[in-house]
Design brief:
alpha/beta; Spore Coat Polysaccharide Biosynthesis Protein SpsA, Chain A; nine-stranded mixed sheet; five-stranded parallel sheet; 21 strands
């Protein structure tokens, strides 16, 4: 299996946090999301993954260093989901390419998507689910019809950001410049060349906004016996209180008597003694 992990975006809805760190490197329970996704790909048998970087690309480069299965693709300009794939075309062998957005946390079964793609015989297979907030993909049975408002007999579903595309399809993307992959998929859908696999019931969460990022931690931690993930390399002063759920990264210092509720504290952040914080992302 070969894959591309899209990690080049600016993450504008997550500013000011993405001015410090690119979105795929946001820690999830103290582990950078990029590493979580690369580990999922490796566990599914992926032998080669292209990771693109543009915004704060040096951080992406440092994160993938030491991963021999990863090819870093540096992009001087933002190329979009399609432009980045087109640039990566020479890195791929003939056959399907699994594509994954770098800002989603999920437990979707990737091998099942590849099996569905092979069985369906389509040029593209999209992993879809029913998520009303994002339902914009028009479907009929096992086929994607287009994007936007549903027509008679169609069902609207949401794109998970995970899809399989045949390598040769990528040649249809302009060879240079910005391009949305969905613009190509809309044309292919009209020709009946886009299939789907429904993944309803899988855990899925994007981190497109600060609220989404915090909500991911709530979903992962709220029902756990230990609802705070605190690094052994963090320091908490006497009387520090941790309520509800949250995470504290390595090197963080929590001052004596500080009270935290529903917070994600990044590595090396410092919280003053007696501070009271709730529903916050704390930067160093």
């Amino acid at each position: 299996m070969q894959a591309m992990l899209l990690a080049a975006g600016f993450g504008t809805r997550l500013r000011p946090y993405t001015l410090v760190r690119p979105k795929p490197l946001f820690p999830v329970c103290n582990v950078p999301l990029l590493h979580i996704l690369l580990d999922k790909l490796a566990a599914a048998g992926c032998r080669k993954t292209v990771v693109n970087g543009c915004h704060l690309a040096e951080q992406i480069a440092a994160a993938v260093r030491g991963r021999p299965e990863v090819i870093l693709q540096r992009e001087e300009d933002i190329l979009g989901t399609g432009g980045g794939l087109r640039l990566a075309l020479p890195q791929f062998e003939d056959g399907p390419v699994l594509v994954m957005n770098g800002d989603i946390y999920h437990d979707i079964a990737l091998p099942a998507l590849l099996v569905a793609h092979a069985a369906g015989g389509h040029a593209v297979t999209m992993a879809l689910h029913d998520c009303p907030r994002f339902n914009t993909v028009r479907t009929r049975g096992s086929r994607v019809c287009g994007f936007g408002q549903a027509e008679a007999g169609e069902t609207l579903l949401a794109f998970t950001g995970i899809h399989v595309v045949e390598r040769e399809v990528l040649r249809q993307i302009p060879a240079a410049g910005f391009f949305h992959i969905i613009d190509l998929y809309a044309r292919l859908a009209e020709a009946g060349q886009v299939g789907l696999l429904r993944v309803d019931g899988s855990f899925w969460q994007d981190i497109g906004t600060p609220a989404d990022y915090l909500d991911l931690h709530r979903r992962l931690l709220a029902d756990k016996t230990s609802s705070w993930v605190i690094s052994s390399q963090a320091v908490a002063g006497n009387g520090a209180v941790f309520r509800d759920w949250g995470a504290v990264g390595p090197g963080a210092v929590i001052g004596a008597g500080a009270q935290l509720a529903r917070c994600v504290v990044w590595e090396n952040a410092v919280i003053p003694p007696g501070a009271k914080l709730a529903d916050q992302i704390v930067l160093p």
